[in-house]
Amino acid sequence: MAWTWRFEKADGSQTEPAVRPEEFPTQSDAESWLGEVWRELLEGGTDQVTLQEDGTTVYGPMSLHAAAGEEGENPGAAAD
């Protein structure tokens, strides 16, 4: 299984990320990576992301802007 992120503008159109994307062996690895690079993605023009497993949407789109407004928040962390 391969876990990947789809990078999008606010209107849902796909965009080229500012950070080179990867394929991840687990959902946790994908979310940890996003937690490390979300600021760079946002500054590079990505507004939201969608997590996919082998091309199937797992969740999203998830805004990167919401995390930017909350100091210390990690958009890859599980929500309550």
Stretches where pLDDT is under 50 for at least 5 consecutive residues are none
Largest sheet, strands/sense/barrel: 3 strands, antiparallel
Helix content estimate: 25-40%
| Distinct helical segment count | 2
Global structural class: alpha+beta
Overall strand count: 3
Physical arrangement of strands within the biggest beta sheet? 1-2-3
Q: What sort of overall outline do the alpha carbons produce when their principal axes are compared? A: globular
Distance between the first and last residues' Cα: 26 Å
Spell the H/E element sequence: EHEEH
**Proportion of residues in β-strands:** 25-35%
Computed over alpha carbons, the radius of gyration is 11 Å
**How confident is the prediction overall: mean pLDDT?**
88
Can you characterise this structure?
This protein has 80 residues and is of the alpha+beta class. The protein has one domain (3-68). It has helices spanning 27-43, 65-68; strands at residues 3-8, 48-53, 56-63.
